[in-house]
UniProtKB/TrEMBL annotation:
<dbReference type="GO" id="GO:0035091">
    <property type="term" value="F:phosphatidylinositol binding"/>
</dbReference>
<feature type="signal peptide">
    <location>
        <begin position="1"/>
        <end position="28"/>
    </location>
</feature>
<feature type="compositionally biased region" description="Polar residues">
    <location>
        <begin position="259"/>
        <end position="282"/>
    </location>
</feature>
<protein>
    <recommendedName>
        <fullName>Ysc84 actin-binding domain-containing protein</fullName>
    </recommendedName>
</protein>
<dbReference type="InterPro" id="IPR007461">
    <property type="entry name" value="Ysc84_actin-binding"/>
</dbReference>
<dbReference type="Pfam" id="PF04366">
    <property type="entry name" value="Ysc84"/>
</dbReference>
<feature type="domain" description="Ysc84 actin-binding">
    <location>
        <begin position="109"/>
        <end position="230"/>
    </location>
</feature>
<feature type="region of interest" description="Disordered">
    <location>
        <begin position="244"/>
        <end position="296"/>
    </location>
</feature>
<dbReference type="InterPro" id="IPR051702">
    <property type="entry name" value="SH3_domain_YSC84-like"/>
</dbReference>
<feature type="compositionally biased region" description="Low complexity">
    <location>
        <begin position="244"/>
        <end position="258"/>
    </location>
</feature>
<keyword id="KW-0732">Signal</keyword>
Amino acid sequence: MRARRLTRLFLSSTVMVGMLGLSTVGHAADSSTEQMLVDKATLAVQDMFTGAKTTDRVYRYLGQSRAVMVCPSIFRMSIGIGGSGGGCLLLSRDARGSWSDPAFYRFGSGSIGFQLGIQSSAIMFFVMSDRGLQALLDSQFQFGANAAASFATMGSGIESGTAGRSNTDIMAIQKSEGLFAGVALSGAKLTVDSDANRAYYNQIVGPTEIVISMRVNNAGADPLRAILSRYNASAAAAMTANPVVGGSSSSGDITSSGEAQLTPYNSAPVVNSGSGIQSQSLAPLRSRPSVPSKSY
């Protein structure tokens, strides 16, 4: 009896891992599905900040970030062969602080091990430099393999990544539920979800047009943009009340406690990376044309 239960568990797990793999390849364009991801991301952001003080690192990272990526539900399973998968949203802000609409991405990773378990994680990436944003705007970004951007991770069980002295381009914080300690980012890939972008904005549009040019808008994303603006206003007020001075512990190197010393987003240096990716200045102020939105 026990052997049969283990067999059923193995077969079910294998099917679910296969589904994870398929989710990273593509899916049919369905704007209602994309709106569900946007709504989940809004709740995930709220959950990340609920209970946090304005002096906590999650507020500091948001206040200093150039962009954010929200992955509201990264599902991980492992039974001999494992993997993680889920949808993510990238939003940037212009020089005035207005948030763009979201560009859709797919998160995927694979692993081989002997763990047995299931986990669902919400991950929020804080893009601290134009260099980091430009790396994510590529059609595919792989953590640990992309020389154009370094990353560091904080939170329950996430590995520390590739950050060095004063060069952390992407910070990550996660909240997890399940049997695993955390989602491993090294080797994981973020891929532009062109089908989702087309479905959500009713036209062929890429991440640069969405988050840099800000030439499209879907009213369904307004709550997500609004909640980021609300928490960012609190972060800005906290930074004004407690300004970073010289070599204080809130900007520069990564400390032994895992806190990163960071540069405000609007003063990030312009850098030509060795991989040919070039950072760019903040997006200019401009009006935001809207596209007809569907009822969901």
